[in-house]
């Protein structure tokens, strides 16, 4: 009589890392990733490195950036909804290199977790692929790491790296910004990917609310308001550049808000004067400011306050620029002006 052999769980799996589950999960997303392939991608995923053709032209410059989703992931875990955070990190990185006039080529992700949850993993990657396709770039590869003890069970970290390119003559640095230029703001969809530690403290700790509670004055739950997707501003900005609108400088309003991000492109001889009465601040920010008793200036440094991206253009270009934005049905506000100064942001109203 032959004794039936029992399958033995590997020592590594007993310690919390199951290689088979991880590899099955990676295999399950290959078709999604392949759908982001662009003509310049060579090969598919699975090799040690992703392959991409080098942009042609002597004056082409590669522009790269890395960032993470941050504690917005705590809200995703709370709601058990992971389809949007991949979009957040892709769009965030697209905007970061767009500031210098660069268009994206490819994206790579890093997911660190205590234990790979195949359903959760597939949802995250679906968001990455959706945004990569919308921004016309490839998800070239990435890394998924299981590290029991480093992350709480059910949670993960999500980080992305983007590479794009721009010709040297089209590189936008902010050096041409002059007093009298105007500042155009494009609206954010919400918090984007910044300020979540403060937002969570006010909403969930101080106010003792849940993600299912309605944000007063809206039909949104707090969960939906917080998980609103970080927008990509590639399409409207690319259209302005395509139509030869002169853009002197741009800033992505991320951590540090207006006060820390706009000066990154300002000449030391100029100030950016922002008129806080020129757009309607979304309800979620008003709630955090009021219930958290947060100083107004700090709100504008922690959060984007409803303006996700700014462009600085010569005043003579304003009519042309706004007509193009209107034709694209892209909302905008003229939110300020460049003054002579010392390279800082000042507020009006």
General shape: globular
Low-confidence stretches: none
Topology as a string of helices (H) and strands (E): HHHEEEHHEHEEEHHHEHEHHEHEE
* Assembly state: single chain
Overall radius of gyration: 22 Å
Distance between the termini: 88 Å
The chain-level mean pLDDT equals 92
Helix content: 25-40%
* Strands, total number: 12
Tell me about the largest β-sheet: 6 strands, mixed
Helical/strand content category: alpha+beta
Number of H/I helices: 13
Strand order of the largest sheet: 8-10-7-11-9-12
The share of residues in extended strands comes to 15-25%
Descriptive notes:
The protein is of the alpha+beta class and 349 residues long. Helix content is 33%, strand content 23%. It has 13 helices and 12 strands. The chain is globular, with a radius of gyration of 22 Å. The chain starts with 10 loop residues before the first helix and ends with a strand.
List the topology elements.
Layout: H1 11-14, H2 19-28, H3 30-34, E1 41-42, E2 51-52, E3 60-68, H4 72-79, H5 85-98, E4 103-113, H6 118-134, E5 138-146, E6 156-167, E7 182-187, H7 196-206, H8 222-226, H9 234-242, E8 249-252, H10 257-261, E9 270-275, H11 283-292, H12 296-302, E10 307-313, H13 318-327, E11 333-340, E12 345-348
Parallel strand pairs: 4-5, 9-12
Antiparallel strand pairs: 1-2, 3-6, 4-6, 7-10, 7-11, 8-10, 9-11
Q: Key terms for this structure?
A:
4-stranded mixed sheet; 349 residues; 13 helices; 6-stranded mixed sheet; alpha+beta; single chain
């Amino acid at each position: 009589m032959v004794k039936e052999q029992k399958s033995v769980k590997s020592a590594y799996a007993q310690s919390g890392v199951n290689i088979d589950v991880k590899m099955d999960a990676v295999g399950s997303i290959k078709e999604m990733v392949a759908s982001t392939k662009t003509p310049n991608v060579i090969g598919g995923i699975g090799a040690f490195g992703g392959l991409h053709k080098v942009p042609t032209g002597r004056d082409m410059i590669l522009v790269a950036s890395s960032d993470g989703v941050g504690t917005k992931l705590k809200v995703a875990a709370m709601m058990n909804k992971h389809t949007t955070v991949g979009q957040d990190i892709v769009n965030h990185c697209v905007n970061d290199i767009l500031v210098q006039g660069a268009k994206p080529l490819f994206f790579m992700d890093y997911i660190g977790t205590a234990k790979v949850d195949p359903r959760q993993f597939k949802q995250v990657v679906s968001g990455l692929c959706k945004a990569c396709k919308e921004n016309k770039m490839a998800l070239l590869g990435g890394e998924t790491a299981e590290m029991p003890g480093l992350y709480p069970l059910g949670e993960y970290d999500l980080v992305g790296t983007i590479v794009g390119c721009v010709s040297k003559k089209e590189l936008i640095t902010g050096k041409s910004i002059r007093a009298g230029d105007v500042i155009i703001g494009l609206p954010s969809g919400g918090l984007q990917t910044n300020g979540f530690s403060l937002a969570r403290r006010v909403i969930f700790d101080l106010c003792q609310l849940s993600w299912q509670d309605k944000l007063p004055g809206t039909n949104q739950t707090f969960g939906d308001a917080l998980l609103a997707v970080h927008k990509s501003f590639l399409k409207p900005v690319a259209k302005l550049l395509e139509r030869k609108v002169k853009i002197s400088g741009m800033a992505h309003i991320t951590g540090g808000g207006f006060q820390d991000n706009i000066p990154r492109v300002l000449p030391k001889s100029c100030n950016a004067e922002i008129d806080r009465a020129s757009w309607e601040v979304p309800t979620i920010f008003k709630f955090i400011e009021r219930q958290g008793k947060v100083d107004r200036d700090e709100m504008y440094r922690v959060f984007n306050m409803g303006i996700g991206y700014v462009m600085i253009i010569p005043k003579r270009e304003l009519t042309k620029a706004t007509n193009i934005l209107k034709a694209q049905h892209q909302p905008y506000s003229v939110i300020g002006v460049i003054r002579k100064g010392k390279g800082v942001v000042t507020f009006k109203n």
